[in-house]
Amino acid sequence: MPELRWDPVLEEWVVIASKRINRPLLPKNTCPFCPGVLEVPKDYEIVCFENMFPSFEQNPDEPSVEGDELSPVLPAKGICEVILYTPQHDTTLTQQSVSHIRKLVEVWSDRYRELGEYDFIDYVYIFENKGEVIGVTLTHPHGQIYAFSYIPPKIQRGLNSSEKYMKEKGRCLFCDILNKERKDGRRMVAENQSFSAFVPFFAHWSYEIHIYPHRHLGSLLDFTEEEKDDFAKILKVILLKYDNLFGFSLPYMMLMHQIPTDGKDYSYYHFHVEFYPLHRGPNKLKYLAGCESGAGTFINDNAPEDKAQELREVDPKTTLIGRII
């Protein structure tokens, strides 16, 4: 059963979820996410259900080991869900219509709201891992939601920095980043009435893209209907640019950052989405080696301005159907 073990050096929880080692690994004959297989409905557009191999559980057993004052241990209480984007197996989110992505935005919003209402959930984290090089075990188009009983450490760092900035400057950190990027223009990739997408000045990954709403919004629940439409549209543009960049379906991590759901005031925070593609070239991957993994300092081999220009020049109107690597 999953459990939380405290790392006293980095002062963060580590999830021990040994059950996940038995989850399916790229099965060749039957996909458990295809319609009618296991608990998946025979007819659906988008479906969400609890992960069969979760990192957190609503009613976890007691930990298998006993903690102490140095390293406490807790049950890994939380909720893990899977969102199937489409019943079609050999496709990707990129190949879905804007109207279908718009429905997915509605599903994301509903799940954020419902999961956040649990009194033991402090953070709802919506994300997608796409591509075998990212480590996915099932290629059927899907994303995930982890509902944490605590605020994850990287999210907490962003909350801390934005709260500090608001106290010192009286302004939103993310609004200032957005204004800087729009004014400079060199790292802009795409834009519509409600959202801007850019390679940040401080990009860790070569083709990293952040999507910010123009209004100061804390979560999907703050979106107007028009903003939901524009969000679906800019997601489609960025996904097409990624696939057309090298002529194959580009692997990535898509990470949604929203305010926690613990009921506290986070008016200083700003909704945004971050994309982390591992590729730094058509045949080159960025690995998190000694400096990144051990020291926590990223080394980006490319200038964000150059990569942003490259992405701007990619045609987002033509769907290239290629293999996922």
Q: What letter string, H or E per element, gives the SSE order?
A: EEEEEHEEHHEEEHEEEEHH
Shape: globular
* CATH 2nd-level architecture: 2-Layer Sandwich
Radius of gyration: 20 Å
Total helices: the number is 6
Overview features:
325 residues, alpha+beta, HIT family, subunit A, nine-stranded antiparallel beta sheet, three-stranded antiparallel beta sheet, 6 helices, 21% strand
Characterization of this structure:
With 325 residues, this protein is of the alpha+beta class. The protein has one domain: HIT-like (HIT family, subunit A, 2-Layer Sandwich). 26% of the residues lie in helices and 21% in strands. The chain has helices at 98-116, 153-169, 173-184, 225-246, 290-295, 304-312; strands at residues 3-7, 12-16, 47-50, 73-75, 78-84, 123-130, 142-148, 188-191, 195-198, 209-213, 252-257, 272-276, 279-281, 284-285. The strands form three sheets. The protein has a nine-stranded antiparallel beta sheet with strand order 3-5-7-6-11-12-10-9-8. Strands 2-1-4 form a three-stranded antiparallel beta sheet, with no helix packed on it. Strands 13-14 form a two-stranded antiparallel sheet. A hairpin with a 4-residue loop joins strand 1 (3-7) and strand 2. Helix 1 packs across helix 4 (225-246). It is globular. The two termini are 32 Å apart.
